[in-house]
């Protein structure tokens, strides 16, 4: 750990697992230009309707069924299906099932921090 801190590696400062009201995400890998996360969305929960100004996202469903809002479109993504969210595009993930939803998210861009979120709707009032 001391070596990570000395070298200012992001792993030394980022918690690996972050709780959210809708579930949690796990930071898997973060290097210059990309970040990989595992998201767990609990049954009946959803992330805020949001956009990012500085990053794009790729989502792959690995377990469950996701209801996706992407721009003005809404559709289902099943296991082993994916979608691409371009920078500035409104988006949301919802889990309308009774089982956990697990996705892999790959963020790409020059700025990948959590404060690059513009929320339009949020059931948790964040």
What does this structure look like?
- This protein is mostly beta strands and 126 residues long.
- The chain has a single domain, classed as Jelly Rolls (Sandwich), CATH 2.60.120.10.
- 4% of the residues lie in helices and 51% in strands.
- The strands form 3 sheets. Strands 1-2-3-10-5-8 form a 6-stranded antiparallel beta sheet, with no helix packed on it.
- Strand 1 and strand 2 (23-31) form a beta hairpin.
- The radius of gyration is 15 Å and the shape is globular.
- The relative contact order is 0.26.
- The model has no long low-confidence stretch (mean pLDDT 91).
Short description:
This protein is mainly beta.
First CA to last CA: what distance? 32 Å
Shape: globular
**Count of individual beta strands:** 11
- Our estimate of the beta-strand percent is over 45%
Instruction: Tell me the name of the CATH class.
Output: Mainly Beta
| Helical percentage | under 10%
Largest sheet: 6 strands, antiparallel
Number of domains: 1
Overall average pLDDT: 91
* CATH fold category name: Jelly Rolls
The Rg value, from CA coordinates, equals: 15 Å
Low-confidence stretches: none
Supply the helix-strand structural class.
Answer: mainly beta
N to C succession of SSEs: HEEEEEEEEEEE
